[in-house]
């Protein structure tokens, strides 16, 4: 009789554990660090999950808080691990096993200092050319939000007097603030140097060029980068269905640029831009939803298709 009770207790405990995991997995918690490319990809992932019957939550956090939140279990997924420039941000968490990397979700990105083309054509082609024209740049390099990895790299150059930049100042604001400052400078034909990256509509909004010589700080090939998906420890095992989706998710430069154009310049809400993009590009659902089911175990491709067609 005691063995029967023990077996029943184990069954109840197993069912309770499975139920706890199901409840834990039914809401997927994302971090967004305020960059439009990550806002766009997070919106796409969120809309896929909503179509599959999941709930999603996105918190706007700085890069350092994103990683501490992944480590302590407050966040499940981060789609914006730019590498190699974010190595210092993720290293200690990766080594501790509190943050895991799923895969590269975008390849062929870039991330380094840039100038308008008319400044480049005037002879500013390398990092070392900046100090020779410090007065024209007003000794300023424009970055984005405080705590950002790119800002940190710029400040490191200044602190180390790399390229003779010790008298330059980092101007921190936000992605939108920096882009507005660049647009204003271009309208006035003023000189400006700033943190540039692709994918981003800034590459189409103004004629711009990336500067050489930044390999030591931003990496080779003009800050050539891949962007990775991170999750909290053991998330892929606990939430296998969402984990399979994350293993499948891969974006393109063209896709992200198009979505960012909709969000930044056409002022379309990220969720609506993602819905419209998914409706117009249904062929990707077969790849992204391969081996994936809805929360209730049904056909994910049909469910997501029905969802975006009804909402886009």
TrEMBL record:
Domain ABC-type glycine betaine transport system substrate-binding: 27-280
Keywords: Plasmid, Signal
Recorded GO CC terms: ATP-binding cassette (ABC) transporter complex; periplasmic space
CDD domains given in the database record: PBP2_ChoX (cd13640)
Signal found in the keyword field: yes
GO terms (BP aspect): choline transport
An example molecular function term from Gene Ontology annotations: choline binding
InterPro entries with a match to the protein in the record: ABC_choline_sub-bd, ABC_Gly_betaine_transp_sub-bd
Signal peptide start-end: 1-22
The protein's name: Glycine betaine/carnitine transport binding protein GbuC
Organism: Vibrio aquimaris
Lineage, top ranks: Bacteria, Pseudomonadati, Pseudomonadota, Gammaproteobacteria, Vibrionales
């Amino acid at each position: 009789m005691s063995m029967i009770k023990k077996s029943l207790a184990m069954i109840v405990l197993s069912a309770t554990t499975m139920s706890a995991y199901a409840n834990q997995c039914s809401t997927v918690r994302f971090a967004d660090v305020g960059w439009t490319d990550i806002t766009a990809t997070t919106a796409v992932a969120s809309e896929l999950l909503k179509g599959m019957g999941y709930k999603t939550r996105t918190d706007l956090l700085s890069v350092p808080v994103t990683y501490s939140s992944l480590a302590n279990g407050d966040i499940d997924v981060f789609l914006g691990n730019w590498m190699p420039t974010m190595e210092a941000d993720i290293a200690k968490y990766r080594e501790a096993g509190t943050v895991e990397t799923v895969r590269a979700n975008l390849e062929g990105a870039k991330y380094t200092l840039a100038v308008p083309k008319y400044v480049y054509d005037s002879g500013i082609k390398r990092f070392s050319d900046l100090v020779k024209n410090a007065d024209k740049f007003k000794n300023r390099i424009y970055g984005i939000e405080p705590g950002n990895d790119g800002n940190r790299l710029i400040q490191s150059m200044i602190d180390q007097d790399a390229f003779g930049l010790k008298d330059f100042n980092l101007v921190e604001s936000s992605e939108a603030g920096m882009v507005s400052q660049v647009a204003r400078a271009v309208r006035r034909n003023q000189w400006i140097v700033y943190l540039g990256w692709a994918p981003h509509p800034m590459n189409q909004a103004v004629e711009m060029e990336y500067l050489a010589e930044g390999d030591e700080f931003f990496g080779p090939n003009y800050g050539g980068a891949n962007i990775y998906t991170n999750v909290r420890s053991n998330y892929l095992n606990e939430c296998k269905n969402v984990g399979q989706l994350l293993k499948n998710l891969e974006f393109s430069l063209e896709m992200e640029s198009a979505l960012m154009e909709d969000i930044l310049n056409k002022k379309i809400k990220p969720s609506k831009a993602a819905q419209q993009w998914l409706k117009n590009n249904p062929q990707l659902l077969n790849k992204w939803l391969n081996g994936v089911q809805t929360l209730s175990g049904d056909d994910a491709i049909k469910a997501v298709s029905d969802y975006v067609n009804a909402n886009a």
